[in-house]
Specification:
Layout (H helix, E strand, L loop, with lengths): L2 H49 L2 E7 L2 E8 L4 H4 L3 E7 L6 E5 L21 E7 L2 E11 L5 E10 L1 H36 L1 H16 L14 H51 L3 H28 L8 E4 H19 L4 E7 L3 E4 L1 H17 L6 E9 L2 E8 L35 H11 L3 E7 L3 E9 L6 H24 L1
Parallel strand pairs: 9-11
Antiparallel strand pairs: 1-2, 3-4, 3-7, 5-6, 6-7, 8-10, 11-12, 12-14, 13-14
Helix pairs in contact: 1-3, 5-6, 6-9, 7-8, 8-9
Length: 496
């Protein structure tokens, strides 16, 4: 059963229930009102008869032997369709004492059962084909004795006819209301579910044609359906973006793997043809290492994407990590024979909750990137400072800089700057280093920023939240050791 059919059935059923319930209440209230009006008339008539009656004793030899009741003319009170009977109930059997002219031929009580009760009573009684409303009221003597009862009745034919007409009108009304509700419900549900149908057709087109650029137009208000359409369009934008990223990712991976594989294949062909030599073996070894780094980086980012990679954090002194990176960077540059000066700028103790291996990897990636784009005679500067709630690390170089139009792209996977800008003596890398840096920073609840000018250099700034409660004694000890090493390094540089 479709949602549209369910909505129609629910809407029609609910409306029918409400209409029927309302009709039952109206029917019951109208019948009660009409019968109450008749009861009031019967009660007033019986009261008038009783008030105009006289009771007096009949005695022989000055002792009371009987009571006589003098009744008024009953025809004065009958009015319209009101029937009157007066019954004597002092003997073993009730005897009729008087009756109105419109009921003189009837010799049986209007309500025999009510004559056996000593309280006023209203009851419905069937007399032949006619239904009567009968009110029985006793005439109570001063001594409390009841010897006469007045019965007043009125036909319910008018009430029954009126109620039958009302019931017919209500039946027709319910039928029309339910039929109308089905039609209106079908129209309204069709209009309400039209955007849902559009979503379904759009999803079907996407499945059939794989066209992720499909969007739904919406001209209505921003209600539930408007928000649904908006969310669908946003979802399609996100899917289109992710699909594009996936396509580029696959293309980039294929391209990055093709280069070392081609080099390996070429060197293996040379080895097979001419035999092994040191240069060919070294080239194969370098390409294998490059592929290994690429695969490891891809695995790292893939695990980070689906949440399978978590960081074990601990209290970490950034100044100690930065100092170790500083020494390793100098050794790397000396080993390569590069003429690049590595300096320490502002240096302050900072403690965070972090992973030491990942922070070191972050800094080494940035430093390697700086070395790659800094020509001989250039300078790379590392610095660390406290700025509000953050520990701020900066890696600056005096290299060739990054064009402004490429700055938003440098953290994309496999993005690489123009080869003409890089130091050609250094491995071009895989284009994943800055993507890994961004992930490491965000995993530490931080942020990374880049500022660059062509011909003047580039500065990467990393903001990482500081530890809220620092062990001041431990920080003082560690920082003192680092500060001493830093001072010894500056003294050696000043001597040189």
């Amino acid at each position: 059963m479709t949602i549209r059919t369910k909505l129609i059935l629910w809407y029609s059923g609910l409306l029918a229930f409400i209409v029927i319930l309302f009709g039952v209440v109206v029917y019951a209230y109208m019948r009660w009102t009409l019968i109450d009006s008749i009861d009031q008339t019967l009660s007033d008539t019986a009261t008038q008869v009783i008030r105009n009656s006289r009771a007096f004793p009949v005695s022989e030899f000055r002792s009371p032997s009987d009571v006589s009741v003098q009744l008024p003319p009953l025809d004065v009170f009958q009015g319209g369709l009101v029937y009157l009977q007066v019954w004597s109930v002092g003997g073993e059997e009730p005897l009729i004492a008087a009756a109105s002219q419109n009921i003189e031929e009837l010799q049986t009580p209007l309500d025999l059962g009510a004559l056996q009760m000593d309280m006023p009573l209203f009851r419905n009684v069937n007399l032949g084909d006619t239904q009567l409303r009968v009110h029985t009221n006793p005439i109570v003597l001063p001594n409390g004795q009841v010897i006469v009862k007045v019965q007043v009745a009125e036909s319910l034919e008018t009430v029954n006819q009126a109620m039958d007409r009302l019931l017919t009108i209500m039946g027709v009304g319910v039928t029309v209301a339910v039929a109308g509700s089905v039609g209106i419900g079908a129209y309204l549900s069709g209009q309400a579910l039209k955007p849902v149908d559009s979503l379904t057709r759009a999803a079907a087109r996407i499945t059939e044609t794989e066209n992720l650029s499909t969007r739904l137009p919406w001209q209505g208000p921003m209600d539930e359906l408007g928000r649904l359409t908006y969310v669908f369009n946003r979802m399609m934008e996100r899917l289109e973006h992710l699909f594009g990223v996936q396509q580029r990712f696959v293309a980039d991976v294929s391209h990055e793997l093709r280069t070392p594989l081609t080099a390996i294949q070429g060197n293996l062909n040379l080895i097979q043809r001419y035999g092994a030599d040191d240069d060919s073996i070294e080239a194969v070894s370098q390409e294998v290492e490059r592929m290994s780094r690429l695969v490891n980086d891809l695995l790292l980012l893939a695990r980070a994407d689906y949440g399978g990679l978590s960081l074990d954090v601990e209290p970490l002194d950034l100044d100690a990590v930065l100092m170790r990176v500083f020494h390793e960077t100098k050794l790397i540059i000396e080993a390569r024979g590069e003429d690049i000066d590595v300096k320490m700028g502002r240096f302050e103790p900072v403690r965070i909750n972090g992973n030491p291996d990942r922070i070191k990897q972050l800094l080494l990636n940035l430093v390697s990137n700086a070395v790659k784009f800094t020509p001989d005679g250039g300078t790379i500067t590392l610095s660390l400072s406290n700025e509000g709630a953050y520990g701020v690390m900066r890696v600056s170089d005096t290299g060739v800089g990054i064009p402004e139009d490429q700055l938003p792209l440098i953290f994309d996977r496999f993005f690489q700057a123009e080869s003409s800008r890089a130091n050609t003596d250094i491995d071009a890398g895989t284009g994943l280093g800055l993507s890994i840096c961004k992930w490491i920073v965000e995993a530490h609840r931080g942020k990374i920023r880049v500022d660059s000018q062509l011909g003047k250099g580039t500065t990467f700034t990393i903001f990482i939240p500081k530890q809220e409660h620092t062990d001041e004694t431990h920080t003082h000890i560690v920082t003192s050791e680092v500060r001493e090493a830093y001072q010894r390094m500056q003294a050696r540089e000043s001597q040189n």
